[in-house]
Amino acid sequence: MGRTYINENGFTYLEAMIVVIMIGLFTTMALPAFENIIARERLKAAARTITIHFREIQQLAIAKEQVIKIVFNDKNNSAEANSYLVKSGVTIIERKTLANKIHIKLAAFSGKELTFNTLGNSKPGHLELENSRGDNFYVIVNSVGRVRTSNVPPAVP
Description:
- The N and C termini lie far apart (95 Å).
- This protein has one helix at 13-64; strands spanning 68-73, 83-88, 91-97, 102-108, 113-116, 125-131, 136-141, 147-150.
- It is 33% helix and 30% strand.
- The radius of gyration is 26 Å and the shape is elongated.
- A 4-stranded antiparallel sheet has the order 3-2-1-5. Strands 4-6-7-8 form a 4-stranded antiparallel sheet, with helices on one face.
- The mean pLDDT is 87.
- The chain is an alpha+beta fold.
């Protein structure tokens, strides 16, 4: 006669429920940190998208041999808040609106507009973007037209 072995290794229902509850608690505690990370990454992505758009506008000014302006609207209570216009003379080429929950905190360009001349040069300045959690990110343009992003505010001369 053969022997029959019964495997009694395993978890009880109570042990399994305790593990599920602990996983739920850890997830609940970690969720705000993940939300902060996601909000910061969305802000960075918006700044990079604007940087790419500014570079495209700069190249358009060089290619068409025209002065092209970017006019900012940083009024938070306006119907057109968080947007900017791209203009050639008085003609509006396009209107860009920022992503949801990201707004222009400060457009530090003379006259609230960034102008690229026919050589791609501009007056220096920066755009300060802010998300709903108060994080800031900057799009910085220098006098030769170099456009870059940074999480550090630019030095004021």
